[in-house]
Amino acid sequence: MFDSLATLLLLGPVALIVVAGMARFSPSARPHSLMAASQLAALLSLVLAVAALGVVALYGSAAGPTFGWAGIGVSVRVDAISATLFTLVSFVGFIVLRFSRSYLDGDRRQGPFFRDLCLTLACVSLLVLANNLAQLVGAWIATSLCLHRLLLFYRERPGAIRAAKKKFIVARVGDGALVGAAALLALAFGTADIGLILDRAVSGGLSGTQMLEVQGA
């Protein structure tokens, strides 16, 4: 039962993505409907995160089904760590969105900022809730690209441009390393499901290195 309910946590990042899509129709300063919708989406994520914390405390960890193909896709894992991180991300995101509403009041690109911030929060939420290596890698890379856009929000500032270039290069190196590590894990344990990988690593069976040796023999 709880395994199926874990999937409901996807409503948080999905709501943020929908709000980000609304920014296309609110490009001007003071997009009141967009700002209100973004705060509601962030509040929804926060409520879901707090509820997940309570359920984990009562019933333990759980994982939802995988939506994808051949075991690769989107899946939610809820445990003490992921629920805590999801709560932290949702809380900070809600506060930042409220602060940005007044801090950027009147800025001609306030709408695009809310779009990029909502996308960033959605990607980070998918990252901390990931129960599939494909989702983990995809959310990591998407988070990095969204942060890059936020760094270049004021493109006329030389300091921001220099920082964004350095961050972009380092982030792509990290992306390559993460993709390689995820591929090795999937090959070693025969699955992209993070929960199964953890169970097989903890169980007393073959380690990942031993499985690679067996497959290569």
Instruction: Return Rg in Å.
Output: 19 Å
- Count the helices. How many? 9
Low-confidence stretches: none
According to DSSP, the number of beta strands is 4
Which strands sit side by side, in order, in the main sheet? Answer: 1-4
Helical content class: over 70%
Largest sheet: 2 strands, antiparallel
What is the molecular shape? globular
How far is it from the N-terminal to the C-terminal residue, by CA? Answer: 42 Å
On the 0 to 100 scale, the average pLDDT is 86
Give the strand content. Answer: under 5%
Walk me through what this model shows.
By secondary structure, the chain is mainly alpha-helical. It has helices at 2-6, 11-22, 32-59, 80-103, 110-128, 133-151, 158-189, 194-202, 208-216, and strands at 62-63, 67-69, 72-74, 77-78. The strands form 2 sheets. A two-stranded antiparallel ribbon has the order 1-4. Strands 2-3 form a two-stranded antiparallel sheet. The longest helix has 32 residues, at 158-189. The radius of gyration is 19 Å and the shape is globular. It starts with a helix and ends with a helix. The model has no long low-confidence stretch (mean pLDDT 86).
